[in-house]
From TrEMBL:
Chain residue ranges for the region called Disordered: 30-82
Name this polypeptide is given: Myb-like domain-containing protein
GO BP of this protein: 'de novo' cotranslational protein folding; regulation of translational fidelity
Myb-like domain: residues covered: 295-336
UniProt lineage: Eukaryota, Viridiplantae, Streptophyta, Embryophyta, Tracheophyta
């Protein structure tokens, strides 16, 4: 009975809810404030959409403009490079033409000299001179030979050939040389700081100052200075070596060359080219047992390499240096470095720290 009475009530409630919802919807649809708010929201949404579209469009236009500017810039650079290359090509062609003209002129001026066998000048000598001189030098030589007799022209050609030979020799020396501090080539200013007769003096100086093996350093410029007697010679494990004046290259002050290749110790009575006795080399591989502070060549080399490998700011530097030197302690390594530093000339810093 109650259930039957509840059903009409539920139905009436639903109808009432539907009527209220319809009424509220009608009010929302016709209320001017609500309509204005909805229009404002719709307009704001449209503005955001348009702003996003405009931003994207501006970015695309900016990217297109940047790409166009980059393309124009590259085209201008390519054009400038092409113009510079063309100008350079024209200049080179002009120089080649002038050079051929000067060579032909020199051959014409040197023809009487070549024809006369008394001067001993061949056609190959003239061609070699033409190949070795540049345009300015050729022009100067031709201007000097113009209007002169055959003897004067032969003298000038001989001078040009000698200058060419000297220039080739200097270039060969420079190609086989090593630059070192002070502007000299293979100049070992630290050599006087080591005792003569010490088998490792030249080795230490060569390796430490130039970073090259002593054999290579001693053999540099050997051909150019062949026949020059060394002055102030001393000995080492590679034979007698000395500091010689460079006659072929005056700008080289002191040059270390090897004057003997025998590794056998020389007798105390052996004489050098200037009559002075050469000190016997000290065998580095067999130091005196009674002297624990004696250093061999291998130990000195290991010490120098360790000093270069471990700089001042390295942690536990001396312990690591001593570990790299066989048979030596930290104290012995420090003493050796101090002795090497004291033997060097004042105000000379070769990196022994």
């Amino acid at each position: 009975m109650e259930r039957q009475n509840a059903m009409p009530q539920e139905k009436a409630k639903k109808v009432e809810y539907a009527r209220v919802r319809t009424l509220v919807d009608n009010v929302y649809k016709k209320d001017p404030k609500i309509q204005m708010r909805k229009e404002e929201q719709k307009a704001e949404k449209q503005r955001r959409k348009e702003a996003k579209y405009l931003t994207k469009k501006l970015q695309e236009e900016e990217a297109t403009r940047a790409a166009e500017e980059e393309r124009v810039r590259k085209e201008e650079e390519s054009k400038k490079v092409a113009e510079a290359a063309l100008h350079q090509k024209k200049v080179k062609e002009k120089e080649k033409k002038l050079l051929r003209k000067e060579k032909t002129r020199l051959c014409t001026l040197a023809a009487p000299v070549v024809a006369d066998s008394h001067f001993g000048m061949s056609k190959e000598d003239v061609e070699s001179t033409c190949a070795s001189l540049d345009m300015e030098q050729l022009k100067k030589l031709c201007d000097g030979m113009d209007g002169k007799d055959a003897a004067e022209n032969a003298r000038m050609m001989s001078n040009a050939l000698r200058n060419e030979s000297s220039s080739k020799e200097e270039k060969k020396i420079e190609a086989n040389s090593v630059e070192c501090p002070g502007g000299a080539v293979v100049v070992l200013r630290a050599v006087p700081g080591f005792f003569r007769g010490d088998g490792g003096d030249a080795l230490v100086a060569s390796l430490y100052l130039l970073g090259h093996h002593w054999e290579a350093s001693c053999s540099l410029l050997h051909g150019a200075l062949e026949g020059v007697n060394p002055v102030h010679p001393w000995t080492c494990d590679g034979g007698a070596i000395g500091v010689v004046p460079s006659l072929e290259a005056p700008h080289l002050r002191l040059v270390l060359v090897r004057t003997a290749s025998s590794k056998a110790p020389q007798p105390a009575s052996s004489q050098t080219a200037n009559g002075k006795a050469v000190v016997d080399p000290v065998p580095d591989e067999a130091p005196s047992v009674a002297d624990p502070d004696a250093w061999t060549e291998a130990q000195v080399l290991a010490l120098l390499q360790a000093l270069k490998a471990f700089p001042k700011d390295a942690s536990q530097r001396w312990e690591r240096v001593a570990a790299a030197v066989p048979g030596k302690t930290v104290v012995q390594c420090k003493k050796k470095v101090a002795a090497m530093r004291d033997n060097l000339p004042e105000q000379e810093n070769w990196g022994i720290d």
